[in-house]
Amino acid sequence: MTSDAQPIAHLLARFAVDQRADPTLVERFGEDIRGRIVDVLGNSLAATTTAVFPVTSTVVRTWGGAPRATAIGLDDGVPTASAAFHNGTLAHALDFDDTHLPSVLHPSASVIPAVLATAEAVGASYEAVVAAAVVGIEITNRLGMAGYDDALGNSVFFERGLHATSICGTLGSAVAVAMLLGGDQDVIGHSIGIAASMGAGLLEANRTGGTVKKVHCGWAAHSGTVAAELAVAGLTGPPTVLEGRFGFLQAHCGDRVDLRALTDNLGTDWTLGAVGFKPYPCNIYTHPVIDAALQLRERGITADQLDWVEAGVAKPTLRTIAEPPAKKASPETGYEAQFSGPYAFAAAMLGGGGLGVSLEDFTDAAAVEPRRRALAARVRMVDAESATAAFPRRISCVLRYCTQQGEEGEITIPVNRGFGARTLTADEHLTKFRTNASTALPAQQVEALEKALQRLPHLSMTDLMSGLRQLAPTHGSPERKGS
């Protein structure tokens, strides 16, 4: 499929229509999408114990409107776009969502909430859900790859301080919702054209603070839903919205774009297999640092024995997890701690739970705990040539250390856990889901939800989502105000 004869948005719309009609899609991707729904719902439930939950709850209640879908944790139904916003925010709030490499996008946190809300509102089948989710994620990832510069070794979006996840996720969500609403090729194409004016997101909060990034995926899910609804109602978008002189890619990335990434082998080569699941609830750039710390513990070395630590990571990641150095060594909140390489090392050495680093390692109280801060202060983040060369197709780390007794050593993490040959096992997925869900639900309800998710191909989205309106009165574990 090429873009020579038709605008790219038209080709993507044709692709969406073709996949919706493909009876083999569930057989090929049904289990994968079920796993992503499980991951998103687990992450979302855990996020109901954070300070962002009352924020979005208050806002969507204020918006009001026809009760068509479930906003997790709210007793009453809300409009479809409101549910997508609330649930998408929760899905991304803990930075625990799946990630596509090398674009470093989190596609499911926007696409899945938009799909679930719309499917619940219109009574869509699981077959329709799978088709919409697969196509929405595929388009999100391909948009990210169109803005990936191989020579640069990084996303042009990120180089410009733009959050590609929310920007590209808006368009992927719009296509997915338009598919569920029964839109034809023209309507789906217009949903892309409209959504391109709605996607946004800046990354400055990663560097200097602020919690606005939490709503990025929620807003992408909301905007994509609204764009599709507007297209169905008759609003139109420019046909050359992606490749045009004043289009999506030119506006966000300038001339450093790869249009072929959008359409080459579309429907043949899928990006879904390159979307890994996170084992740790923090920025993915910190993950190989955590992996190295856990291996250090396996060697029998404790935090008190360490004199200094040097964590070598990919140069482009330093701006996110190492700069400014003083702030990264002393995060003030659990949320800031999620984007700190030095703190991630300390958490892995001194914390535990979950799959090695747990949600409780990123509370406000944990972030300022003196022993963790003291250890983080002994961690120096540097550019490692091998990690930079591998980035972002692999997130890696070379950790050097010296003990108080003068013993030096090195640990190399060639690829972060959850990706490639280190993909999470079924048991690890289950551990992550149970750990997350149990923060908001009593054990009996977690077990019931787990069984319901196992029956997902035969369970309506209404039955699945309506069961998430009632949470435990205590909301599980103590509130992670900074998360």
Outline type: globular
Please list the strands of the largest sheet in the order they lie side by side: 6-5-7-8
Unreliable stretches (pLDDT < 50, length at least 5) are 474-483
> Count of helical segments?
24
CATH class of the largest domain, named Mainly Alpha
Gyration radius from CA atoms, angstroms: 22 Å
End-to-end C-alpha gap: 43 Å
Task: Give the number of DSSP strands.
Answer: 8
Please bin the fraction of helical residues.
40-55%
What is the CATH architecture descriptor of the largest domain?
Orthogonal Bundle
The CATH topology of the largest domain is given as: 2-methylcitrate dehydratase PrpD
Domain MmgE/PrpD N-terminal: 12-255
Protein name: 2-methylcitrate dehydratase PrpD
Domain MmgE/PrpD C-terminal: 280-451
GO molecular function, one term: lyase activity
Secondary structure: elements and pairs:
Blueprint: H1 8-20, H2 25-47, H3 52-63, H4 80-93, E1 99-100, H5 108-122, H6 126-146, E2 148-149, E3 154-155, H7 156-159, H8 164-180, H9 185-195, H10 204-208, H11 216-233, H12 248-253, H13 260-263, E4 275-276, H14 287-298, E5 306-313, H15 318-321, H16 325-329, H17 334-337, H18 341-350, H19 364-367, H20 370-376, E6 379-383, H21 385-390, E7 397-403, E8 408-413, H22 426-437, H23 443-454, H24 461-466
Parallel strand pairs: 5-6
Antiparallel strand pairs: 1-4, 2-3, 5-7, 7-8
Helix pairs in contact: 1-6, 1-9, 2-4, 2-6, 2-22, 3-4, 4-5, 4-11, 5-6, 5-8, 5-11, 6-8, 8-9, 8-11, 9-11, 14-18, 18-20
